[in-house]
Amino acid sequence: MVNISKSFGDVKANDKISFSVKYGEIFALLGENGAGKSTLVNMLSGVYSPDIGEIYVHGQKLRLSSPADSIAAGIGMIHQHFKLIEVMTALENIAIGQEHSFILNKKNIRKKIDDICSKYGFKIDPEKLVRDMSVGEKQTVEILKVLYRGADILILDEPTAVLTPQESERLFDILIRMKEQGCSIILITHKLQEVMEISDRVCVLRHGRVIDTVNTKETTPMELTSMMVGKKVTLSIERPPVKSQEVVLEVRNLSLIDREGIKKLDDVSFKVYSGEILGIAGIAGSGQKELCESIQGIERRKRGEIIFKGENIARLTPRAIFEKGLRISFIPEDRLGMGLVPTMSIVDNVILKDYYMQNGIFLDRTVGEKRAEHIIKMLNVQTPDIYHPVNKLSGGNIQKILLGREIDSNPDFLVTAYPTRGLDIGSAHLIYDELNRQKEKGIGILYVGEDLNILLSLCDRIMVMFEGKIIGTVNAEDATKEEIGLMMLGEKATEVLQ
Amino acid sequence: MIKMSARSDCSKREATLIRTLAVVFALVTVSFFIMILGHNPISVYISMMDGAFGTGYRLLETLRKSVPLIITSIGISLAFRLKFWNIGAEGQIMMGAMGAAFIALNFPQLPAIILLPLMAFTAMISGGIWGLIPAYFKARWKTNETIFTLMMNYIALKFITYLQYGPWKDPAALGFPKIPNFSQNAVLPDIFGLHAGWVIAIILVILSHIFINYTQPGYEIEVVGGSENTGRYAGMNVNKIIILTIFASGSICGLSGMIEASGVNRTLSVEITRGVGYTAIITSWLSYLKAPVIPIVCILFASMIQGGTFIQMAFQIPQSAAQILQGAILFFVLGSEFFIRYKISFVKQNIPEA
């Protein structure tokens, strides 16, 4: 890529970016959210066309004006969110759009798939339905799909975001095998370890520009981070010790069967101490969301007890809990779908939980205005004014508004699900610091996370969930990633603390 | 190469300019059509204006047509704020008119001061129930409200037809299928030459503006309309909010039916709505569901209807020409949204900077 630029409106997403990827190389694109990584690869995969600049593939100058052009040039894109048809088999998903005859010649397709599998060391059952597959298997199908189309340049967008450590290892093995066969691999990520582990060269992007391209062997995580963020940052997360042994919240035998009759929570019991951060690890969809919503009170179908400050709140609605003077703050994972009203202003979102406590039928916004100003100042939110609609703010600022509202209500308990998802390192650390500040005030915190490194360094204990059950709880100080990874796959840990 | 990109910087002034331009483009486009018909578009437009506002009588006629449109638009926009796509205003108007007629025909001798409020009350309950039924089903079983409210329109229409041809037929009309006229006590009095419905319309516009922006229930509607899950998260009773709001929406439409029956037709008939229930969907949408804008758009639409009748007489142009103009305006204004949300720029082909 030579001198690629692309703007959206007044925003320069990519500014004169140049880099080259060699045959048989794993090339990492590293950058924070909004650094321009996605824009760049979308141009490579033909979704956008660059305003200026040229793309050369195998020495030939190409104009990629549609994804079809890009596939024809041998570029295969593996998106973070899989683009597979759930009700079809692996084979059908791989062959879709590729075979132009009316009748599928499954035998030939199968043979071709088998060839690719043995060449790179994939293991897959082509007749398995996609909806029955694990996340790792689905990803394999995605990779097979682009290889089947003859791609020799693979772009992977945050491929390990949804995988367990073991699955990630397996993926890396395959990537290394592919590299040895002469494929070029572009890996988009913001996880430093991965970059250090498998890439050959790293290109760091910031604010749409290439900061530098370096050989992985000649750099350090510290150096890469300061290139990414633009200043020196400390990557360490503090973990103040837990002072008290007082239980704030206790969950006893909590079970939940959802509308479709699927068991989402299976006899879950645990305690959270005051001034403690209890982490929850697990593959996405292991019951974390249901657990959070059960504690907060939105989820109504549950059985079991939730004892909070001596009262059983399992049968209460969120408002009934609030009216008892018990403050449970909840930061849900889908912040624009639940927690905030995207089209409304900051002020209107700030008053969401207690507007109805006002007397009379009218709505007084002056309290909300003061609180909005306070939150903006406290968390350094970037916004033109307090009446700005939240969906016009950036992801980090949206999260700050939500976190600000929830912390500002002086909670006794804080439930957070992926609070730093989609945030850049700076904003994420601001949020970790804020959580620690709350912790030191003696609040119990439930932290559902996906990045095991963060969980290990932020939380006091980590509880691992698998298929709605608690597999075990470990002390974060002496647990390892591998141990937790195994538990995430449903294997009991040898040492279970309670 | 033409390039599109999203924009978030469109100021209110720019947006108004774009929308005004859209109306101008609509007028220009329809001009070509009028020219094909062999008339001078400018003189046709001028006489449309003349027909709608030219004399005191014409102005009153225009306003008379805009009153049900304004009230119904207020009702519909309440439902639309909740993202409840209520296209059942037509049926709610009819049921409201039916409720009013029931009272008017059965208690013709009651003094107006009691009879009229009683008619209005019954109309609001009837229209409200007609909205409540689909709302309940939507809240309870997630049925599709668009299809449901549409079907409710046909039930209402056929029910009134039945009344008109059956039990409520005027025995004094010599076999002609018509419902008896209301007594004088059941007719809305005139205020400054126009039936009192216009005062109700103004009050409703003001009340609904205050309700949406400055009250707690109005805030709840905004929250649930913006994100149902967030409403649930905040502890709101989402189903109750949906049901009550749609009841209110149906009641307002029902009131509009009472005003038409009492103030204009002085009886109930199957033609009571004259399509207002559907036109009001367009007007509330073009007003961006904002109460203060609704009267402006509705008077504009009423003037096109009134002006359309006038050019039919003056130029022998079919009245449908005015309907084409309405359609064109809607098309262009909705189309102009694209230019408010995206910026179009022309760039030269990929030329790398040196």
Largest interface here, residues on each chain? Answer: A-B, 46 and 29 residues
Largest sheet of chain A: 6 strands, mixed
* Helical fraction of chain A: 25-40%
- Beta strand % of chain A: 15-25%
Contiguous low-pLDDT stretches of chain A (5 residues minimum) are: none
Q: How is this structure best described in words?
A:
The complex is a heterodimer of chains A (498) and B (354). With 498 residues, chain A is of the alpha/beta class. Chain A has two domains: 2-229, P-loop containing nucleotide triphosphate hydrolases (Rossmann fold), CATH 3.40.50; 247-488, Rossmann fold (3-Layer(aba) Sandwich), CATH 3.40.50. Chain A is built from 16 helices and 20 strands. In chain A, α12 (366-379) packs across α13 and α13 runs parallel beside α14 (425-440). Chain A is globular, with a radius of gyration of 24 Å. The model of chain A has no long low-confidence stretch (mean pLDDT 81). Chain B is mainly α and 354 residues long. Chain B has a domain at 63-293. Helix content of chain B is 71%, strand content 4%. Chain B is built from 13 helices and four strands. Chain B has a two-stranded antiparallel sheet. In chain B, strands 2-3 form a two-stranded antiparallel ribbon. In chain B, a hairpin with a 2-residue loop joins β2 and β3 (194-195). The radius of gyration of chain B is 23 Å and the shape is globular. The two termini of chain B are 20 Å apart. Residues 349-354 of chain B have low confidence and may be disordered. At the A-B interface, β1, β4 and α10 of A face β1, α8 and α9 of B.
Question: How would you summarize what this structure contains?
Answer:
By secondary structure, chain A is α/β, with parallel strands linked by helices. Chain A is 32% helix and 24% strand.
